[in-house]
Amino acid sequence: MQHQYSNNIWRILACPYCGHPVEKIDLGAICHYCHEKYVYTDSGALDLRLKKPKTYHLEFELGTSLLSKSEFDFNKLSKNITPEVNFSGTRVPFHLTKELLSYFPRAKGKNSLMLDLGCGDTVHREVCELAGFEYVGLDYNSPRAPMLGDAHSLPFKDSSFEFILTIAVLEHIRFPFVMMREAYRVLKADGRFIGTVAFLEPFHSDSYYHHTHLGTFNSLKYGGFQVERIAPNKSWSVFMAQSRMDIFPRMPRFLCKSLVLPLSLLQKLWWQAGGLIPRSETKSDRIRNTTGAFTFIATKE
Ligand SMILES: [Zn+2]
Questions:
Q1: Are residues 140 and 105 in the same domain?
Q2: Which residue, of 66, 72, 185, 244, is most buried by count of CB atoms within 10 Å of its CB?
Q3: In terms of Cα–Cα distance, which of 292, 267, 13, 279 is closest to 136?
Q4: Are residues 219 and 127 part of one domain?
Q5: For the purposes of burial, counting CB atoms within 10 Å of the CB of 95, is it exposed (0-12), middle (13-18) or buried (19 or more)?
C-alpha cells in the first residue's frame, strides 16, 4: 500500500537532483525541469533517492581554529527546566533520553513540519506528533520508512522544517559535511536540529565516521549551525556500547549491565584515586572521553 502524503508535504517536495519542485503523478512524482521520475517502492514509500551521480561542491577555510579549549561546555545534558513540550507519561523511545526530550521544540503552527532524518522504523513519530508537528520520516532504505531519500541530497525545498531530528544516523553518512549543509538548507530560520552520533560504539551497519565531541562541533559549525549543546550520553558508556553491540551481542540488557558494572565502578574509583592521573582531568572529562555516543542540539539563526 502506498503511503499517503498530505498537501502540506507535497508542497515541500523537491527533486533531489536539481532542486526544482516535483509534481505528483500516479506512479509517484516527476521533475519537469530535469525530467527525472520518482516512483513508489514495493513497500509503498515514494523513492526520492538520487537516480544518477550528482556533484556537490564544498569549500573549506583553512588556517582558522575551531574554538579555544575552555570556550564550550561539553558536559552531560541536564533536564531543560523550561521545556516547551510536556512529555510526562510518555514512553521514551529507543535512543532518546528524558533529558534530550526536554529540549524538543513545540510546533509553532498547525502546518508545522518536522523531519526525522534517518527515521528507520519511525519509532520517534509519537513524540514528534505530541510536540504538534506533522511528521516526515525519511530513510535511505528502511522498509518501514514513509519516504526514501538520501541525506546528502534531501528531496525538500529550502526552509521546509521547523525541527529536524536525526538519531544515530550521522556515523552512517559517507560525507558528513554534505549532510550538515543539507540539514541546514531545509531547516527554517529559528529551527532546531537535534541528534545523536556514535563515538566509542563499535563499527556497526556500515558506519563511516564516528564523531568525537570536537568532530560533532566541527561538523555542525561547518553546516552553518549555531551549536547549543554537545553532550556525552552518560548511561551509554564505552563499556555498555561495546558490550551490547559487539562483545556480547544479543545478551539481555540486565546481564550485560551486571557484567559491565564492576568495570565501570573500578574506572570511577581509579579516576577518584587522583594521584595517578593529571589533576586537570575531571569527572566530566571521564564521562565525555568514554561515552558511546554524543547528543547535539543546534539551531539555525
Ligand atoms: Zn529535477
A1: yes
A2: 244
A3: 13
A4: yes
A5: middle
Cell of 155: 528531496
What is the identity of the amino acid at 262? P
Instruction: Tell me, rounded to whole angstroms, the distance of Cα 174 from its chain centroid.
Output: 14
Ligand 1 centre from 186 Cα, in Å? 17
Task: Please give the distance, rounded to the nearest whole angstrom, from the Cα atom of residue 241 to the centre of ligand 1.
Answer: 41
- CA 102 to chain CA centroid, nearest Å: 16
Same domain for 151 and 251, yes or no, is no
Question: Quick one: pLDDT at residue 69?
Answer: 66
**What is the C-alpha to C-alpha distance for residues 37 and 32, in angstroms, rounded to an integer?**
9
CA distance 41 to 1: 10
**Same-domain pairing of 17 and 135:** no
Q: Which grid coordinates are listed for 46? A: 515514494
Residues forming a β-bridge with 297? 194, 229
Q: Which residues of the chain have pLDDT under 70?
A: 69, 274-279
Q: Which cell numbers hold the place of 43?
A: 513497500
pLDDT at 253: 84
> 44 C-alpha to center of ligand 1: Å?
22
- Rg of the chain over CA atoms, in angstroms? 20
Cross-strand bridge partners of residue 194: 165, 297
Q: Cα–Cα distance between 147 and 79 in angstroms, integer?
A: 32
Centre of ligand 1 from the C-alpha of residue 175, in Å: 22
Q: Looking at the 3D structure of the chain, how many domains does it have?
A: 3
Answer yes or no: do 15 and 131 share one domain. Answer: no
Q: How far is CA 178 from CA 119, 157, 175, 184, 290, in A?
A: 18, 16, 6, 10, 27
pLDDT of 281? 74
- Please give the pLDDT value at position 279: 63
Distance 15 CA to ligand 1 centre (A): 5
- Say if 250 falls within a structural domain: yes
Q: Where are the beta strands (DSSP E) in the chain?
A: 23-25, 28-30, 37-39, 46-47, 113-117, 134-139, 147-148, 161-167, 187-198, 226-232, 293-299
- Measured in angstroms, how far is the CA atom of residue 42 from the centroid of ligand 1? 23
CA atoms within 13 A on the CB side of 135: 18
